[in-house]
Amino acid sequence: MSSFAELWAEIAPIGRADSGGYLRFALTEPELTLRDWFRAQASSRDMTVTEDGNGNLFAWRGEPWAPGTVLTGSHFDSVPHGGGFDGPLGIVSAFLAIDEVPNDRQIGIAAFVEEEGGRFGVPCLGSRLLTGAMDPSRAAALKDRDGISFGEALGATPVGQITRLANIKAVVELHIEQGIALETPVGVASAIWPHGRWRMDFAGVGDHAGTTRMTDRRDPMLTFAFTVLAANKEARLTGAHATVGRVQVEPNATNAIPSLVRGWLDARAADSGTLDRLVDEVVRKATERAGRDGTTVAVTPESVTPEVAFDGPLATHLSKVLGDAPILPTGAGHDAGVLSAHVPTAMLFVRNPTGVSHSPAEHASDADCEAGIKALATVLTDLS
Amino acid sequence: MSSFAELWAEIAPIGRADSGGYLRFALTEPELTLRDWFRAQASSRDMTVTEDGNGNLFAWRGEPWAPGTVLTGSHFDSVPHGGGFDGPLGIVSAFLAIDEVPNDRQIGIAAFVEEEGGRFGVPCLGSRLLTGAMDPSRAAALKDRDGISFGEALGATPVGQITRLANIKAVVELHIEQGIALETPVGVASAIWPHGRWRMDFAGVGDHAGTTRMTDRRDPMLTFAFTVLAANKEARLTGAHATVGRVQVEPNATNAIPSLVRGWLDARAADSGTLDRLVDEVVRKATERAGRDGTTVAVTPESVTPEVAFDGPLATHLSKVLGDAPILPTGAGHDAGVLSAHVPTAMLFVRNPTGVSHSPAEHASDADCEAGIKALATVLTDLS
């Protein structure tokens, strides 16, 4: 049996950038290499490997999708220059945990595709397709930054909803915690904040930076900048989270007033009412400012996920099984959140001492990861 | 003899993007195609073509660099999705004007490399090298967005200063006007505003957009946004021009707080005192805000050009030769501005009815372009 550190070292170099972070985008070479590693791990445990026609990969102990199977796993893909734990920890832990689960139990391990939305823009794309929450032809048409569609990357239009999901008895996803709220090695998730992504297109008039009088300008960079500050202020006032972390500028030249600035608003709140009010207020302020700047703003929701309350009795039960592990909510989206609308679902979190995630500095200790594996093995044995 | 419209049509499709604007970056395929066209135009007029080892291309009637030669021309390169007139109009007009200048006159036509700084970041790179204003090894090391250096693109380290420039009697660059100040078909330049580019690196701490509490964030996007608005406000208060048209974000992911936002400030003013005060005030405000955001800001001047006052008696003379053409300053940089420190230099502007430039919408009428060619022929005949 591999120890955690040994197995972790096998995948650590795959897709690692000079920044120390990872470039493991869905269906690109590093993520495909990780999928090969997944097949090898499954094979060494005599597990059956299947794909679901949506880009999701599975290893099964017992018949694939057999009634009563407990499903675990997570995702391989990263945000650009993200940490190595976000996603892969759940898959590595699943293979090590299953070694501790009695051989007669039916367990599946999943590697969901495009959880981050880092390549095709829609997070949890694989689990959304699998559960029927996402239209397959819409998914096929999603494009990455180079214009390659998800359908092209997959080599086919995804098949969409997998009805045999109804056979799954429970889902348990183990994941590194992405804040600093967890003070013990392992915790259990209560809920995922409602959250979403809104693309904001600020359009103005491209012109010469040197010769265009300030009063004649229709500069969308101003409207964008104002909106960034307004979103931050609204989030602080409402106790929500708002971030503008991605920007695209046309023509993006030093000596040209932009014709278009495109920014993405990531917003999350403890309840849907607060989230809706936050986004409405940001859009209202952006629109008002656009009127003053002579620009326009068009807002497109790219993905909006309502609050996910994980199965309460299941979370309470698992907390007890794990010796009163703390139960806590998260602001981060997960495939488990999508699956929870269809199957009794739980999440285990592994402590993140600094809370840093989506950054090369993301880290969890070996001891906490080993505690996570032990907890996952306990939970899988208990549930299966 | 070609009419303006005929010759213009020859180059109109080269490097044209779907936006209607141009992607004619220095030493890339479209600009190299335009250089081939330049050689063919020179050849059809029995002109000698030379290169100067700095990426600048010349066609000569008479011996290259012969004492008493009058030099005209402009540049082929564009900003990303820029207009077709900015630069190429001066070269096309030069070839058509020379057809009207008596055959015994010594005239040179130049195509200067990298006037926009759109590929390697330093505008007027070719004329700066030629005049000795730019160190050749520093120029060789400048990199484009793909990491290719100017030296690599050129195939050699540039040779730098060309001492035979002292033989040139006068320089006249014809250019489309880039504001709306010119109300007649042709005008004469008085001065170029002092101007420059400052790279601003806003550094913070990359983290998860969903899980990081607002109070724990060190988000450089906020400092950037504040600085964009501060620069705009300072420019309006001081009668200067300030623009942030280019942005780079790391990691540039929707669900990650950026670790770095890099913005470029383009600033220009009627005098150096105002420009210095503007930039100082923007940097002061950015630094103050960075203190509040828990971020840092580092400002690097990439190129700063002091005020250029073109040869006053020459401008007055040319205005008279052209029937009292108006004399006006510009906020746009030009190779003629760099050359004016070494050779008596003038510029002719062709009317731009909307004032739009550095945009696909940039335009001058055929009639005004023909008037420009006639004026350039008159001036070249007068000076040579």
Layout: helices, strands, pairs:
2 copies of one chain form a homodimer.
Chain A: H1 4-11, H2 29-44, E1 48-51, E2 57-61, E3 70-75, H3 88-98, E4 107-112, H4 125-130, H5 136-141, H6 150-154, E5 170-176, E6 186-192, E7 195-203, E8 207-208, H7 220-238, E9 241-250, E10 256-257, E11 260-268, H8 272-293, E12 296-305, E13 308-309, H9 312-321, E14 327-330, H10 335-339, E15 345-350, H11 366-383
Parallel strand pairs in A: 3-4, 3-5, 5-15, 6-14
Antiparallel strand pairs in A: 1-2, 2-4, 6-13, 6-15, 7-11, 7-12, 8-10, 9-11
Helix pairs in contact in A: 3-11, 7-8
- Shape designation of chain A: globular
Structural class of chain A: alpha/beta
The parts of chain A where pLDDT drops under 50 for at least 5 residues are none
The end-to-end span of chain A amounts to 22 Å
Count of helix runs of chain A: 11
Question: What does the main sheet of chain A amount to?
Answer: 9 strands, mixed
What does this structure look like?
Chains A, B: This is N-carbamoyl-L-amino-acid hydrolase. Chains A, B: Its cofactor is Zn(2+). Chains A, B: Belongs to the peptidase M20 family. Chains A, B: Keywords: Hydrolase, Metal-binding, Zinc. Chains A, B: Allantoate binds at residues 197, 255, 268. Two copies of one chain form a homodimer. Chain A is α/β, with parallel strands linked by helices and 384 residues long. Chain A has two domains: 4-193 and 307-383, Aminopeptidase (3-Layer(aba) Sandwich); 195-305, Alpha-Beta Plaits. In chain A, 33% of the residues lie in helices and 23% in strands. Chain A has eleven helices and 15 strands. The first copy, chain A, has helices at 4-11, 29-44, 88-98, 125-130, 136-141, 150-154, 220-238, 272-293, 312-321, 335-339, 366-383, and strands at 48-51, 57-61, 70-75, 107-112, 170-176, 186-192, 195-203, 207-208, 241-250, 256-257, 260-268, 296-305, 308-309, 327-330, 345-350. In chain A, strands 1, 2, 3, 4, 5, 6, 13, 14 and 15 form a nine-stranded mixed sheet that branches. In chain A, strands 9-11-7-12 form a four-stranded antiparallel sheet, covered by helices on one side. In chain A, helix 3 links the parallel strand 3 and strand 4. In chain A, helix 3 (88-98) crosses helix 11 (366-383) and helix 7 (220-238) packs antiparallel against helix 8. Chain A is globular, with a radius of gyration of 22 Å. The mean pLDDT of chain A is 95. At the A-B interface, strand 8, helix 7, strand 9, strand 10 and strand 11 of A face strand 8, helix 7, strand 9, strand 10 and strand 11 of B.
